[in-house]
Amino acid sequence: MQQSVDSAQAIAESDALAVERTLAGDRDAYRVLVERHSHSVFRLAYRMTGNRHDAEEVVQEAFLRGYQKLGQFAARANFGTWVYRIAANYAIDRMRQRQKENALRETPRVEDREGTENDPVNRVQDEAPTPERLTQSLELRKQMERALAALSEAERTAFVMRHWEGCGIEEIAGVLKSSSSAAKNTVFRAVQKLRHALQPFVETKAQARAMGTES
Amino acid sequence: MRHMREEELIAYREGVAERRAVIADHLSACEKCRAEMERIEAVLAALDTLPVPDPGADYGRQVWKEIAPRLAEQPGRWWQAWFEPRRLAAAGGIVALIVAAFVAGRITKHGGIGDNVVNKEQVRERVLVVAVGEHLGHSERMLIELSNEAPDNPKQKEVDISAEQRRAEDLLQENRLYRQTALREGDAGLASVLDELERVLLDVAHSPGEVTPAQLEAIQKKIEARGILFKVRVVNKELQQRQEASKPAPQNDSAKRERNKV
Asked: How far is B202 from chain A (nearest CA, A)?
């Protein structure tokens, strides 16, 4: 009994050990890896796909593929980074698929963001009698979602991985299957596009602050 | 003094600039570039306020529960994945569809080359329509049963929905397959309803096996609010009509006699 407790602690301490044990046939060891990394992979997947439904699919698929390819996992590598990469690749596929779906539909689903169905942003109508400040803030959020949705898959991937997840350029280049300089350029293009799309709204907010109309 | 280009400022802000020290020195000395950097930072700071939903403290356990039955006994051996029960069932289903399409193709193969192409298309359409129709029927029944679930008495603290939950898990796999097929076939309307159904199935599959009456009510309200039962019924009806329309027209006796002569 004591041995199994010790073993569980040892698994929790090290991803590398968990990988080793999984490869040795201890399937439960993989459970430790799944439970440990699910949240961060979900965050990446949600930011890339923009909706909860797709993000959950990406998380599951990433861990399934990770398990299937575990034999190819280099012992010295970091499991978290590795599964991140698998998730990012699958998220790109999912985004492409979603784009095709949207193109086939009559009305694009730019604002169809899962998990935000109770979000006031989705319920606010232009004519809704909300205070000006709230309206501005909600409008900004809508614009941000639109601007992110308007990025290409590569730009969105590069931006999410670099700006929000702090991934290195080499890692991003690996996911985008490009050179480091191309990955760097993609980060730049993404920020530039976001800036051009959002600056008017952000500036309006800054001006409001300067005018003392915003707390 | 040469001002910094937007590219350099963004690279600096995102930590990927090569000449960091030079840009930092320039920013401390140049008010114009500092103002430009502030504008970039304001946009990025605004983007940082976009929320990411919290999937819940037990999300890792949920993910494991979802994927565990789909994992092979040994990792890294790709071929083993094809022998797990769910995959075998799915593969069996696909084989059955192909066989059905082949047999139906043989039976309806009467005309010339042009007729044959049309027949094959019709058969493929019919097989897909029948399979999706069945799937929608199963989904509808599960959702109706879930919508009708209720505590046996007012004091009951938990309601067991584990049966519906397991069915939702199974239906989810099929649903993904049909949604992707519908999409490939360019059937956007069907793909859209299957997509909505998938979200509901995902919600149910992720629910605990035993829920409080309040949780049950929330699930039922969600199903109702999405109007998914109605949409599923409408699409199923349309599929039935398509099935009827794709049936080959009965041939008249003179045509049969002509063919018999050949």
From this structure: 8
